[in-house]
Amino acid sequence: MTSIHVAERVQRIKPSPSSTAADRANQLKREGRSIVSLVVGEPDFDTPAHVREAAARAMNAGATRYTALPGTVELRQAIADKLKRENGLTYALNEIIVTNGAKSAIYTAFAATLEPGDEVIVPAPYWVSYPDMALACDGKPVAVACSEEQGFKLTPAQLEAAITPRTRWLILNSPSNPTGATYSAGEYRALADVLARHPDVLVMTDDIYEHIRFEGGTAPHLLSAAPELRERTLAINGVSKTYAMTGFRIGWAAGPRELIRALDTLTSQSAGNSCSVSQAAAVEALNGSQDFVAQSLAVYRERRDAMASGINAIPGLSCRLPEGAFYLFVNCAGLIGQRTPEGKVLETDGDVVLYLLESVGVAVVAGTAYGLSPYFRLSIATSLDILADGLARIAKAVGDLA
User: Fold this and answer.
1) pTM score, two decimals?
2) pLDDT at 60
3) 56 lies in a domain?
4) What confidence score (pLDDT) does residue 2 get?
5) Is residue 19 in a domain?
6) Which residues of the chain register pLDDT less than 50?
7) Helix or strand run (H / E) with residue 40
8) Same domain as 35, residue 104
9) What 3-state DSSP class applies to 141?
10) 330 within 8 A of 310, measured Cβ to Cβ
11) 26, 111, 155, 390: least CB-packed within 10 angstroms?
12) CATH number at residue 376
């Protein structure tokens, strides 16, 4: 038998924990178990009709061939218009690249800029893929624990302490996955004052949840608060969460021309251009009616309020009310040390998550995957009926502990 050598860059990373949890939940469903999966961060709504119709029109018009590598002119113009209209940011078309989802933009940026040992500051809790994408590109993720008491947000003092001569990137995700924490303009300004002392540190803003914000309006942008950072900031976004277009795989990056040119070069030899039909659909999403955005936000808010209230009524569990995104990051410290009906002591949030899955069939993701324990993340991107079922099951499981 031939032995396949897997490169060290792959061996040093792990599969996405959220994908692994979803796969396990689906496996149990296939085995006949009744499972309530609160794992996947994906809107449960259909893509808006006018966006689907734009995709169909594009196919029928023959727009099924290669496009310009950085994206069609129409889509890059729509992105530039959106950035100007909603964020007050001005970008030329050659400062924008369309990618195969926002994740691809982040990975490609790391691949294009990181040398072995370069450090990437990742405030924790973080989206599960940030550290592994840095590792896959020979970088070193530097996780900075941001406690619940500080709103799960990075402080200027923490940022100053984390920066070293090897620091290459700082990632800021607002609203955040998994906590829903959102930076204010003032908090951005304070972080920018630290960055002013470290001009070689690049900044990546992951804005994918910007429209899913419960306090009104889109989330403030770092570059609105600190425009002087523009020439070293890469703004990442996409249509997946806002417009329920996860399967269309359209993201983008906007930034200084030199950096976008590097992404262009690497993409030309890797992924190539993004799907032509998806790009046409994304143009319609950005330029067309925005009614869906407000309608879906109202539903998410109702789900958030109901689920947070229910979780906080369960002894041993608690959660802050998220300001955005569609997750609850649940503090389960009160369950650590308790015993299951089978006599097992719950020692970690991983134990809690396994207990919920095996005892009552509720699938969530342990806080360890996001860099902060003891917590678990649950998604509210599903119906109120399913959430109520999951909540009742969690309450029963907790009630059975001793």
Assistant:
1) 0.95
2) 98
3) no
4) 80
5) yes
6) none
7) none
8) no
9) strand
10) no
11) 26
12) 3.90.1150.10
Same-domain pairing of 174 and 312: no
Confidence (pLDDT) at 26: 82
Kindly state whether residues 23 and 66 are assigned to the same domain.
no
DSSP string, 166-202: TEEEEEEESS-TTT-----HHHHHHHHHHHTT-TT-E
Question: Is the preceding omega at residue 374 within 30 degrees of 0, hence cis?
Answer: yes
Residue 199 lies in a domain: yes
What's the chain's length in residues? 402
Which residue, chain included where needed, has tokens 């003092």?
157
**Residue 288 exposed, middle or buried by CB count within 10 Å (0-12, 13-18, 19+):** middle
Span 359-396, pLDDT tens digits: 999 999 999 999 999 999 999 999 999 999 999 999 99
- Sequence-ordered list of residues with C-beta below 8 angstroms from that of 119, at least 6 positions apart, any chain: 139, 140, 141, 142, 164, 166, 167, 168, 169
Residues with Cβ within 8 Å of residue 361, at least 6 apart in sequence: 28, 33, 34, 35, 36, 393
pLDDT at 33: 87
Amino acid 117 reads G
Sole residue written with tokens 């950005």: 286
Q: Are residues 267 and 325 in the same domain?
A: no
Tokens of 278: 């998806």
pLDDT for 3 equals 85
306 and 345 share one domain: yes
> Residue 31's pLDDT is what?
87
Q: b or e along 338-361 (b: 16 or more beta carbons within 10 Å of the residue's beta carbon)?
A: bebeeeeebeebbbbbbbbbebbb
Asked if 83 and 89 touch (Cβ cutoff 8 Å), the reply is yes
- In this structure, what CATH number is given to the domain that contains residue 153? 3.40.640.10
- The pLDDT value recorded for residue 299 is 98
Q: What range does the domain containing 114 cover?
A: 62-287
- pLDDT for 355 equals 95
